[in-house]
Amino acid sequence: MTQADRPIRVAVVDDQPLIRAGFSMVLAGQDDIEVVGEAENGADALDLLEKVEADVVIMDIRMPVMDGIQATERLMRLDDPPGVLVLTTFDNDEDAFAALRAGAGGFLLKNAPATEVVNAIRVLAAGESVVAPRITRLLLDRVSDRLAPANGQAERLDVLTARERDVLALVARGMSNAEIAAELYVAGATVKTHLGNLMAKLHLRDRAQAVAFAYESGLVRPSP
After folding, report:
1. High-pLDDT (> 70) share of the chain, %
2. What's the CA gap between 47 and 56, in Å, rounded?
3. What's the CA angle centered on 86, arms 83 and 90, to 5 degrees?
4. Which pLDDT score, from 0 to 100, does residue 58 have?
5. How far apart are CA 46 and CA 44, in angstroms?
6. Which residues of the chain have pLDDT under 50?
């Protein structure tokens, strides 16, 4: 059975029972979404996902026993990892950045409207990044002056062609494929090909990770 033939399977991970119950209640009202389980910390989430399959995991960051960042890192080691949607606030910028670096497909504020959460789940289940590139860039600009470049990341740029570096830099500036095509005077399909190639070479899951890598490698610098 393909995903199109069944509901999107979602696991909810948060250490607060009321928040878990609230998400589960909202999602239960969606015809195309099924809550397959709940967990109160990252360790319990890993145990849960050994027993049930999930397409998307709603993951809190700050939890006892194992936090959401550690759990996300562990989930990304699976052969077919679920999409991870982390919950955060802009009061914890470093946490949000760490979650993206760990492999999360995006983040939402904890007080996001229910419709936004539901839409994010659908987008993530379809294999896309939840966070718009411009929002990711704003987040990284806020934290980059407090983060040291990751060891070895700059050397990874050596596998890219000059044009692939250009595309990655423009993605990190928050540009869409169409905007990049206009900037480089190439077809949109060409941009898509370069983006796919560079993400494969760098083992990146989505645009959000690509933006994070561009900052970590020093390819782009924070805005003034």
Report:
1. 84
2. 15
3. 145
4. 95
5. 5
6. 1-2
Say how far apart CA 132 and CA 75 lie, in whole Å: 23
Q: What is the pLDDT of residue 186?
A: 93
What order of strands is seen across the sheet that includes strand 56-60?
Answer: 33-39, 8-13, 56-60, 83-88, 106-109
> Which alpha helices (DSSP H) does 8-159 contain, by range?
17-28, 42-51, 68-75, 93-102, 114-125, 133-143, 153-156
Tokens 């294999």 label which residue?
127
Tokens of 92: 């914890």
Distance from the first to the final alpha carbon of the chain: 50
Q: Please give the Cα distance from 203 to 101 (Å, whole number).
A: 12
Q: Which ranges constitute the DSSP H helices of the chain?
A: 17-28, 42-51, 68-75, 93-102, 114-125, 133-143, 153-156, 162-172, 177-184, 188-202, 207-216
What is the spatial distance between Cα 137 and Cα 208, in angstroms, rounded to a whole number? 9
Strand partners, 129: none
Tokens 């561009």 sit at which residue? 214
β-strand pairing of 33-39 with 8-13:
parallel
182 to 149, 154, 167, 210: CA distances (angstroms): 30, 27, 12, 20
Question: Which residues are bridge partners to 35 per DSSP?
Answer: 10
Q: What is the pTM of this model?
A: 0.71
Q: Encoding tokens for residue 200?
A: 């494969």
Contact 83, 101 (CB under 8 A): no
- Count of beta carbons in the 10 Å neighbourhood of residue 102: 21
